[in-house]
Write a structure and sequence with these properties.
3-stranded antiparallel beta sheet
Length: about 450
């Protein structure tokens, strides 16, 4: 590193900006070591306090990490490099199974809900300082309590990631450890890096994170844990009653840990919710409407302990301020009128997902997809498998987007599939990969 890039700058901001620029243009590679603080101070001819402040800025921006005796290094995936940038070019005529989107034909029409919202606000348009939609909050509260979530305050955000960002940003500090699922949601992994937090990977199986993995992360000092309740992205895992009990026991031993529970599966998954909410003193559960009603609605309901919810609302007031009341009223209309037949939607996805998993198993290919929109296929070589599938007319998402420490895999989104596609796709996947024998995701 020191042979190709020499740290310069007279202030902490200048030093940090120089390192970030070197990462962006390739002069500093992921994992490259940086000099100790005193050596950096000598190089740049600044005080040790200035050098330490520069490293602090870089940690906060998600550019570097402190790795104990290994010193300070460029992150393996700096925050400036989004995981979604790990992509493949999809040639014309190739079926794209890499996007992770819901099936548009299973989303409800929005014209009636939006028209009803427009009528409701025609004579009373929302103004600054207007509170959240009372009907939406009441409907959300009833649904959550019906699923066994403790009665607690409610808030509304512009989607799951918006809520998680605000909570992590207000409850944690750069350098804090966060237990994350591995493989897990690529956007969350990017967010953790961008906030300067340290991801601690937890392996999982079809029933969710392994309790021993969560326990190890918490005993190791993780100050927060993010767990997906159902339709885990990318594996389709769903927390069972037995697994929830085991996870709650691990969390109860660390009551000061922040628990973030993601239930984006509401409305398109038919397995019951087994919530972890309340297992710690600080917690939130986020319920997104994206997959059931459409990603462009940009709305999620959040419940949690009063202190954490107050922090989320306070941070929201300083930024966006509120979520569109037209959208809130529209979502309330969709819930009130039961615009989505959850059982039918879940059955449609299950037919494709379960059909593909079974067809792959019949061809000797191990795959996972208990719930949700995706099938996770472990492979020995992602690049070779993706190239082989492209040659056969299919585009898969590289598992590198979702992995921290688990082995290579592909993610196949089943939303674009028709029943007649299952067997040909399974044939082509089997021809493109040599299946490893694994019972877990790593």
């Amino acid at each position: 590193m020191l042979e190709t890039y020499r740290v310069t700058g007279g202030t902490a901001n200048e030093i940090a900006a120089g390192v970030e620029a070197a990462v962006s243009d390739g002069r500093l590679a992921p994992g490259a070591p940086l000099p100790p603080v005193r050596e950096l101070a000598t190089q740049a001819q600044v005080s040790p306090n200035t050098a330490a402040a520069a490293y602090r800025l870089l940690r906060e921006r998600g550019i570097v990490e402190t790795a104990g005796r290994r010193g300070t290094r460029i992150r393996p995936r700096p925050a400036s490099t989004a995981r979604e940038d790990i992509r493949i070019e999809v040639p014309p005529g190739v079926r794209d199974l890499s996007k992770g989107n819901p099936d548009p034909t299973l989303l409800p029409p929005l014209h009636e809900a939006l028209a009803a919202a427009a009528r409701a606000h025609q004579d009373r348009p929302a103004m600054y300082g207007t509170g959240d939609d009372e009907e939406l909050l009441a409907l959300a509260g009833a649904r959550l309590r019906g699923d066994g979530v403790p009665a607690a305050p409610l808030a509304i955000s512009s989607g799951t990631l918006d809520a998680v960002e605000r909570v992590l940003n207000t409850c944690l500090r750069p350098g804090d450890a966060v237990a994350v699922e591995d493989p897990g949601w690529s956007a969350l992994l990017d967010l953790v890096a961008a906030l300067g937090l340290r991801p601690v990977p937890m392996r999982l199986d079809d029933d969710g994170p392994l309790p021993e993995e969560l326990g190890k992360a918490l005993r190791g000092g993780a100050r927060a844990a993010v767990i997906t309740a159902r339709a885990q992205n990318p594996t389709g895992a769903a927390v069972t009653a037995a697994r929830a009990a085991a996870l709650r026991a691990e969390l109860a031993a660390h009551p000061g840990v922040l628990l973030v529970e993601d239930d984006h599966g509401d409305g398109f998954v038919d397995v019951p919710l087994h919530p972890l909410a309340g297992a710690t003193a600080r917690w939130i559960l986020v319920r997104s409407t994206a997959k059931a009603f459409g990603p462009d609605l940009r709305l999620a309901l959040i419940t949690g302990d009063p202190v954490t919810l107050d922090r989320l609302r306070g941070r929201q007031r300083l930024a966006a301020g509120w979520v569109s009341h037209l959208l809130q009223t529209a979502v309330a209309h969709l819930w009130r009128t039961r615009a989505v037949d959850t059982a039918a939607v879940a059955a449609s996805y299950a037919e494709r997902r379960d059909g593909l998993v079974a067809a792959l198993a019949a061809r000797g290919v191990a795959a996972h997809g208990r719930t949700g929109l995706n099938v996770w296929v472990p492979v020995p070589d992602e690049a070779a498998a993706i190239t082989g599938l492209l040659a056969r007319g299919w585009a898969a998402a590289p598992g590198a987007r979702n992995r921290v420490a688990t082995p290579p895999a592909l993610r196949l989104t089943v939303s674009p599939l028709r029943p007649e596609d299952i067997a040909p796709l399974a044939d082509d996947v089997a021809a493109a990969v040599h299946p490893p024998s694994r019972g877990r995701y790593g």
